[in-house]
Amino acid sequence: MTAFSPVGLFSLTFDNLGEAAELEMGALGADAALGSHATATEVVPRLLERLEAHGIAATFFVEGLNAELYPDLLRGMVERGHEVAYHAWRHEQWGELSAAGQAENLARGIDAFERIGIEIAGLRPPGGQLGPGGAAMLREAGLRYCSPAGDGAGVEDGVVLLPFAWRHLDAACVLPPLAGAREEMGGSGEPVDPAAFAAWLASETGRLAGSGGYLAIVLHPFMLGWLGAENLESLLGGLAALAGRGDVRLCRCVDAAGAVAGEPAGSRGELVLDPRGWSG
User: Fold this and answer.
1) 238 versus 279: which is more confidently predicted?
2) What is the CATH number of the domain that holds 140?
3) CA–CA distance, 40 with 16 (Å, rounded to integer)
4) From the CB of residue 91, how many other CB atoms can be counted at a distance below 10 Å?
5) What pLDDT does residue 62 have?
6) Contact 60, 85 (CB under 8 A)
7) pTM for this one?
């Protein structure tokens, strides 16, 4: 196997926005008023200010519905240098959709983002699984990368795969079905507190220095209250400092995909997809 690249890559990513996932889960009625969700009107605007203060460009995986509900917010993300990528239309569990359903979902989302002037380069499948369409479905839709659950990085069917590990996702700290991810963090399936999670992420990204590889941090706007402002600030400051060292590069997923696509196979480590989802 080709050795790891000497420069490690990592991406700070945020999943979900607005009411989309709540609608999909049935937490909101069909007649609920849309377009004023706190994550879109309060949480993310504050987050964008903190990211700018630390000079960090992130990738936001958002549901296509948000292109209709919050077009100005999404355009503002892009204007600030962040990437907007796809997270299904309404947070549908991607691996449970048929190949035809995936194709229809992609087409609807890509069209919605194009209508507000945003080009989508990648997808993070809700639930973490590629499902029956696989990477080929994304290639046919014109996407360049996908971020499913797993480790390593590589290219499959002409699409760069930039996996995220459940142990690097905030919700894994508390979700009962992801006790296995917590055991990977600290040897116990018990819930992980916010400060310990922030320290874990700092340690994991720090390991990229000198050894290379790829790592994606996954946070959710609706969980930033759980993480806490102090822990978020500490995390962002640490990531910015690490990225300034030269042997680790903090980049948006679209930029990481470009780097991986231009390297020899296996240079970011063995690509291994993880079959575990939100439901275990």
Assistant:
1) 238
2) 3.20.20.370
3) 10
4) 23
5) 98
6) yes
7) 0.95
Residues 194, 249 contacting (CB under 8 angstroms): no
How much is the pLDDT for 138?
A: 97
Q: What is the DSSP letter of 17?
A: -
How far apart, in whole angstroms, are the C-alpha atoms of residue 123 and residue 242?
Answer: 26
CA distance 14 to 44: 10
Instruction: Report strand pairing: 159-161 vs 122-123.
Output: unpaired
- The one-letter code for the residue type at 24 is E
Position 278 in a domain = no
Tokens for 274? 């993880």
116-173: pLDDT as tens digits: 999 999 999 999 999 999 999 999 999 999 999 999 999 999 999 999 999 999 999 9
pLDDT band at 40 (very low <50, low <70, confident <90, very high): very high
111: which 2 tokens? 């069209």
Contact 161, 128 (CB under 8 A): no
The closest of 72, 14, 73, 82 to 52, measured between CA atoms, is 82
Domain range enclosing 60: 8-27+35-270
Give the count of alpha carbons within 13 A of 141, CB side only.
Answer: 30
- Identify the pLDDT of residue 3: 39
